[in-house]
Amino acid sequence: MVRVAIITVSDTCHAEPSHDRSGPALRDLIASKQSDWTFLAGDIVPDDADIIRRAVVRLCDEEKVDLAISKVLEKEAPGLVVAMITESLKVTPLASLSRPVAGVRGSTVIVTLPGSPKGAKENLTAILPALPHAMQLARGESSRQLHTSPMNPVNVAPISSTTSHDYSHNHSHDHSLSHSHDHSHSSSSGGHRALARPLDTPVAFRARTSPYPMISIADAHRTIEQYSTALDAVELPVNPSLVGHVLAEDVFSVEDVPAYRASIVDGYAVIASDGAGEFQVSRPVTAEKDVQVPRITPGQIARVASGAAVPEGADAVVMVEYTEVVRASQDGSLEEVVRVAGASRSGDNIREVGSDMAKGTPVLPKGTLITNIGGELGSLAASGRSKVLVHRKPRVGVLSTGNEVVEIGETLGFGAVRDSNRPTLIAAVRGAGFEVVDLGIAKDEPNHLATTLRSALGVDSSPHEVDVLLTTGGVSMGDLDLLKPVLEQRCGVEILFGRVDVKPGKPLTVGVLGKDEPKGRKLVFALPGNPVSAIVTFHLFGLPALRRLAAHPSPHLPTVPARLLHSVPTDSRPEYMRARLRMIRSPATGLATVEWIAEITGMQRSSRVASLAGANALVRVSPRKEREVEGKEVGRVGEGEVVEAVVLDTEGW
Ligand SMILES: Nc1nc2c(c(=O)[nH]1)N[C@H]1C(S)=C(S)[C@@H](COP(=O)(O)OP(=O)(O)OC[C@H]3O[C@@H](n4cnc5c(N)ncnc54)[C@H](O)[C@@H]3O)O[C@H]1N2
Ligand code: MOO
Ligand SMILES: [Mg+2]
Predict the structure, then answer these.
(1) Ligand 1 centre from 563 Cα, in Å?
(2) Distance 533 CA to ligand 2 centre (A)
(3) CA pair distance 192, 496, nearest whole angstrom
């Protein structure tokens, strides 16, 4: 048995209940359509948040009604809202300005209806057939259905004040009553602001401006930084695949280097106090493991190789260049007497035990990046460690999205676009030293996208589990730009931000799965589809996050000041133009003065991937508003002006 209560919110009706026409009209309507539903005493309350809250709480929590009609709700059911607006639009285009809400509190379904009896009836008529099912879901009668149904109020994200629908001129009651609302607009502070449209919103009802606040580049960096803390430490063998990892422990040497007194040169081990003269030559010593080394006594010398053990008794080595043979065996294979030209000092040309690296002393501190230059890996290898603790590097999934996107080599039908994003990003991620999972191309279809994304993120424990997911396309305002709602509503990803004040890359979207579990957290970079936007935002925002996850000591790409070779236009957004940097040395000094010249790589449209060809830097051109001369914005940056350049590569400097 369904129990219904109607709350009328009106100051006038509260003062004079006989003025309430909407309440009785709704009651009649429900009674005519749902004859088996019963009515509990509802309420007529003034337009006051606290009083409304008490009335609703009483009905939901004490009376346990199944359906209340009020101006408040706890969790939203946007599908009901869509149905109501659709119905009202048939009557008036102004309905697009209305803001009804629908949802649940506990097991009670709550919907708000317009104040006029006619509007209230029209709206209720539109949703009435769905209400019995909504009530079943609210009672949790089918958890599987609950999980997949678009009506599921638990699964459907709350919407913020900017998009919330409420007929009230003053919707502050909703704010105070709804726990699930969080109106924080701070991009870096944690409040969950689910802003994506419900996936089933008909095209005509979608927001015509992005609900995502346009955040600054700095705020985007701060937010990403907050969720890209170093991954856990793992013990890995000391070998070349350590490159790109960062030490998670202070490393001390297990052994002395060298482990024996070693000669630095090829020559003769001598007793320094013997001075110059002619000497009997003892058995030679080569650099070998498990070598037997002779002992020499005054008057004797022994031939030693660079790196070979110095015989006991000797305390210096004389280079072969400073000696000559006096007497040898007949076939020349054995030196018998050798003349040493000059005197040595004790210790000459000998590396003492542990003098390169002493056992027990620090080799590399925690936080050291193991580079491919060789020093860190070499030190670890020499130190005697065979395994070390390093931070895990993120595994990165790369997915292209778009019905128009086709593989290289595939026939290019009309409207098709070659997938340049995926190969480029895969190469960029690998080039930066991270493991890639190639996830292919996904269609702009919610179920297909959801399955692909969930599997990549391991939501359903797929083998393709990645730490970071890079997708391209589908994040702007288009009909089939589905990434934000699918990530949010079908994958449990919280969208941290959905627009950044940067060119290219405005719709850059970053989300997090498992926000409160630093160990199991997954980051999603939904990069814009335009090829330049995708690559530039990867280098500016994605790559630093990957490096941070790997505990990299300097996550951001380095910058240098660069002089523009030619004047460039400014935009309303800060712009990162692709450029070729050349290093110029002052002719006078050769080295003392070094400066970089930046040549912009032709037309900078974000679809023109060729603007990245040959580019080794991104030159930051400040937005028009930041460039004022005598109160007037300046539309260009002049030739010869110095700008900041983010260095992508130093090849060819
Ligand atoms: N009404 C508005 N429209 C657009 C806005 C806006 O603010 N309001 N922003 C524009 C900006 S800026 C960008 S950037 C793009 C971003 O678009 P999406 O991320 O939604 O990407 P798509 O629509 O899927 O594709 C855009 C473009 O890129 C091509 N593409 C997509 N994937 C690939 C790929 N793998 N390889 C090569 N090219 C690809 C796609 O065919 C489109 O031409 O939105 C603007 N619109
Ligand atoms: O920001 Mo879009 O990335 O300009 O083309
Ligand atoms: Mg688009």
Answers:
(1) 31
(2) 6
(3) 8
Q: How far is the CA of 209 from the centre of ligand 3 (A)?
A: 14
- Nearest ligand atom owner, CA of 611: 2
Helix extents (H) in 128-264? 131-138, 143-148, 172-177, 217-226
Answer whether residue 165 shows pLDDT above 80: no
Instruction: Name the CATH superfamily, with its identifier, for domain 217-229+393-549.
Output: MoaB/Mog-like domain (3.40.980.10)
Give the pLDDT score at 159.
28
pTM for this predicted structure: 0.73
Output the CA 503–ligand 2 centroid distance in Å. Answer: 5
Nearest CA, atom 5, ligand 1? 476
Instruction: Tell which atom from ligand 1 comes closest to the C-alpha of 528.
Output: 19
Q: Give the CATH architecture of domain 3-183.
A: 3-Layer(aba) Sandwich (3.40)
Return the domain boundaries, the chain. 3-183, 217-229+393-549, 233-251+359-391, 262-351, 559-647
The answer to whether the peptide bond before residue 198 is cis (omega within 30 degrees of 0) is no
CB–CB of 510/525 below 8 Å? yes
- The 10s digit of each residue's pLDDT in 37-93 is 877 777 888 877 667 767 777 776 666 666 655 445 667 788 888 888 888 887 777
Query: Which ligand has the nearest atom to the CA of 498?
Result: 1
C-alpha radius of gyration, the chain, whole number: 37
- Residues 255-272: pLDDT tens digits? 999 999 999 999 999 999
Q: Does the model's ipTM exceed the 0.95 cut?
A: yes
Q: Say which CATH superfamily domain 559-647 falls into.
A: MoeA, C-terminal, domain IV (2.40.340.10)
Please check whether the two domains, 3-183 and 217-229+393-549, share a CATH topology: yes
Fold of 233-251+359-391: Molybdopterin biosynthesis moea protein, domain 2 (3.90.105)
Measure the CA–CA gap between 111 and 101, rounded to whole angstroms: 6
Ligand that comes closest to the CA of residue 509: 1
CATH H-level superfamily of 262-351: Molybdopterin biosynthesis moea protein, domain 3. (2.170.190.11)
How confident is residue 25, by pLDDT bands cut at 50, 70 and 90? confident
**DSSP per residue over 63-105, as a string?**
S--SEEESS--SEE-HHHHHHHHHHHHTT-GGGGG----EEEE
Q: Ligand 2 pocket: which residues have CB below 6 Å?
A: 503-506, 528, 530, 533, 606
